[in-house]
Automatic annotation (TrEMBL), chains A, B:
This is Transcriptional regulator, BadM/Rrf2 family. PROSITE patterns: HTH_RRF2_2 (PS51197). One of its GO terms (molecular function) is DNA-binding transcription factor activity. It comes from Fodinibius roseus. It comes from the Bacteria. PANTHER family: HTH-TYPE TRANSCRIPTIONAL REGULATOR YWGB-RELATED, WINGED HELIX-TURN-HELIX TRANSCRIPTIONAL REGULATOR, RRF2 FAMILY. One of its GO terms (cellular component) is cytosol. InterPro entries: Tscrpt_reg_Rrf2 (IPR000944), WH-like_DNA-bd_sf (IPR036388), WH_DNA-bd_sf (IPR036390).
Length: 152, 152
DNA sequence: ACTATTTAAGAGTAATATGTCTTAAATATA
DNA sequence: TATATTTAAGACATATTACTCTTAAATAGT
């Protein structure tokens, strides 16, 4: 898998949050229910996003998490890097150290281009872009889709 | 990581084998030494490639493995599928079941295209292509490169 | 026939990723 | 202040991947 499960869960949660464009806090319990993700596991993942300042959190009743800024200002790339780290955009497809150095691997030419394409795609796509598409075209971010876009 | 370590090891080994265009058997011990891969682990991986009929093996002294056909006839895609399975070319980037069905995920449009590009690249690149490039441009398939292309 | 060499097969171990549970700290509300 | 609710943090458990070790089977050479 290109992205870890943690990363996928992080994307699902931030996409759903992005569709709640009310600026209020949403409890992780609520997110985990809607997205069918283990509450404690999702909590850990969102903590990483909070540490990366992509989310803001508040404890206590009425607490929860919310996007730290406009959903149009947060890119998929930022979410991916916050969880899986930046290396996936620089690593050799054959796992060799120092990809792109003076002595690359035979697959470097083809891979580096594709890898940059992926990074570019994620870089130029905001949470708003994806959540809007999800809403407008009634797309899925869970297996069975028993959540509703834009309804906190 | 896009490819598992097993898959990467399989690619390294088949690329090196492809540069030995003599049709003889090369012992796995020799490959594991040259490629800095655990002998027993590499053996298991190459067994998968033998089962998939990409390699032929022979036991006993003078035994070993060799490509089952011309290196120009074996694609990187075949090696990848034999080890990591075909799913990486059909899976949803968000891990949802049934990618591409009537209700895809918001990232489907961007991902499906990139995923197909990757498959196409691997499909249209043969072991010969890569090993030739490796030889001609003195490229790496190990961390320190203390192997020599084309020298069994 | 015997021995050395090599792949085949499977059990066992270690490392990492994924998921669960418990306790602590913060905060809103009564 | 007291209580309920919620995130934070870390220990713990399970699953998957990566790797190791042992034994069996086949084959070439003596
Ligand atoms: S060196 Fe292998 S992909 Fe860059
Ligand atoms: S449904 Fe998600 S990538 Fe196809």
């Amino acid at each position: 898998m290109l992205l870890s499960k943690s990363c996928v869960y992080g994307l699902r949660a931030t996409l759903l949050l992005a569709s709640y464009q009310n600026g209020g806090y949403t409890s992780i319990k609520d997110l985990s229910n809607k997205l069918d993700i283990s509450f404690h596991f999702l909590t850990k993942i969102l903590q990483q996003l909070t540490a990366a300042e992509l989310l803001e959190s508040m404890k206590g009743p009425k607490g929860g998490v919310r996007l730290s800024g406009e959903s149009s200002d947060i890119t998929l790339r930022e979410v991916v890097i916050a969880i899986d780290g930046p290396d996936i955009f620089t690593e050799c497809v054959l796992g060799l150290p120092g990809c792109g150095s003076e002595k690359p691997c035979p697959m470097h030419a083809m891979w580096a281009e594709t890898r940059d394409d992926i990074e570019q795609m994620l870089q130029t796509t905001s949470l708003e872009d994806m959540s809007k598409e999800g809403m407008e075209q009634d797309l899925r971010i869970t297996a069975d889709g028993h959540f509703v876009w834009g309804e906190p």
